[in-house]
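EI: anyone free to look at a 142-residue chain?
SC: sure, send it
EI:
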Amino acid sequence: MKLVICDFNKTLYDPTAQQLFPCALEMLEYFQKSGIKLALLSTEMPDRARLLDKFGMATYFEQVHFVIHKTASSIQAIVDASGVAMQDVLIIGDDPEGELLVAQQLHIPAVAVGTGFCDKQAADVLGATFCASVKDVLETQL
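SC: here you go
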């Protein structure tokens, strides 16, 4: 794995509590220290860039993309700009109709985080590894 593409809302950030999920920064730091490139792919919302700065997250990501819809072309653009091969990419997200569906379409391994819209059954249908929390994602990568 050479590139991790992360979702933001309900994957790294809890909009209800208005704070990062436990271990979100630790996970990003782990990938960064391991020499793995990080990219953020998030739905375009007025506060997203401000939240990245507020929580000190912007420095972890080599690329930040805010889009109206997550599509194969938006992920392909991130992969192309990173200079890594598609088989060296991992997608981490919570939306079975967004980034996780696109990961399946592009045959990219994915981790479905159960802090948002995805449950284990949906992850299984999409062929994604299910982790109940960001902490679980971090622990499975160690």
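EI: The chain has one domain: 6-60+69-141.
SC: 👍
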